[in-house]
């Protein structure tokens, strides 16, 4: 049922329809990319394979390294990219039907931003130390294992499952001292693990790594805060969304018109396309399709 407070006039409809259409093109292109040619197979000449070789030349206090971290980064970034397609599909459905335009856009857009940020943290092209790259992989894997065990415990998982998950956490923690020297390991005041100066970031901390992809014309961190409040939820988001911005009462990010939806859609589409570029680049694959779709966003109607 359409909200009676949602104003979609003919001009807004042109913008929203064009955004929904471009979302569909992105989803179709991603599916085609994964099913045609070599798909997501890792090219022989790729940064991922180069990192595999570099990692096997590294040493720790208990012997040689393996190339596991490079494979983990390749797999995790691809899975995070593909997970974004579900969130973008939700946004497309909302924009196509106009159902949920008031409050339904916040959660999927927020999730897309989080996934973007973590991929860029893991694969950030400015990392010039293979040991730092591997440290990020280890922190990511350890965080994932710890959160999986916590979730299983909260869901009253059977004891044998909790034991297995706890063993995975123990093994990963042990790997820290196997791979890294004492001088490379530290903890902050709250006990968070620091490897070569790196901590596993929270979602808002990870957003700083998106800057390498180029800035959108608004504050991404501010948008994330707004979207988080929309998801949690807080009342100010509801009032910001349903009340028009005025000179006396400026809206922080949301607007009850196509400006709000244009910002959300552009940020979400640019994020998934830039993640696609970075993931493809790490695997040594063609970045042309994602670059073309990214450039086309600037040609879409604006409110």
Keywords:
303 residues, mainly alpha, two-stranded antiparallel ribbon, two-stranded antiparallel sheet, 62% helix, globular, disordered N terminus
Folded structure, characterized:
This protein has 303 residues and is mainly alpha-helical. The protein has a domain at 10-63 and 74-126 and 202-299. It has helices at residues 10-35, 47-55, 68-97, 106-123, 130-154, 159-179, 203-206, 220-231, 235-242, 258-282, 288-296; strands at residues 59-60, 63-64, 185-187, 193-195. The strands form 2 sheets. A two-stranded antiparallel ribbon has the order 1-2. A hairpin with a 2-residue loop joins strand 1 (59-60) and strand 2 (63-64). It is globular, with a radius of gyration of 21 Å.
């Amino acid at each position: 049922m359409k909200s009676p407070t949602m104003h979609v006039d003919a001009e807004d409809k042109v913008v929203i329809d064009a955004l929904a259409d471009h979302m569909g093109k992105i989803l179709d292109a991603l599916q085609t990319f994964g099913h045609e040619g070599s798909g997501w197979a890792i090219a022989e000449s790729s940064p991922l394979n180069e990192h595999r070789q570099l990692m096997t030349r590294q040493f720790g206090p208990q012997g040689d390294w393996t190339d596991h971290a490079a494979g983990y980064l390749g797999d995790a970034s691809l899975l995070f990219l593909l997970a974004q397609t579900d969130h973008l599909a939700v946004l497309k459905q909302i924009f196509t039907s106009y159902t949920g335009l008031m409050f339904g856009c916040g959660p999927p857009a927020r999730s897309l931003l989080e996934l973007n940020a973590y991929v860029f943290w893991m694969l950030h092209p400015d990392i010039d130390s293979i040991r730092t790259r591997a440290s990020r992989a280890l922190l990511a894997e350890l965080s994932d294992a710890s959160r999986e065990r916590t979730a299983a415990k909260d869901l009253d998982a059977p004891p044998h499952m909790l034991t297995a998950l706890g063993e995975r956490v123990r093994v990963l923690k042990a790997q820290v001292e196997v791979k890294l020297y004492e001088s490379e390991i530290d903890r902050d005041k709250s006990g968070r693990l620091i490897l070569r100066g790196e901590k596993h970031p929270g979602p808002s901390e990870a957003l700083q790594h998106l800057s390498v992809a180029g800035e959108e014309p608004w504050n991404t961190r501010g948008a994330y805060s707004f979207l988080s409040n929309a998801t949690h939820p807080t009342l100010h988001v509801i009032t910001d969304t349903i009340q028009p911005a005025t000179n006396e009462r400026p809206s922080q990010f949301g607007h009850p018109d196509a400006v709000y939806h244009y910002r959300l859609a552009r940020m979400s589409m640019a994020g998934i396309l830039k993640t696609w570029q970075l993931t493809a680049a790490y695997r040594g694959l063609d970045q042309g399709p994602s670059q073309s779709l990214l450039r086309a966003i600037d040609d879409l109607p604006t409110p």
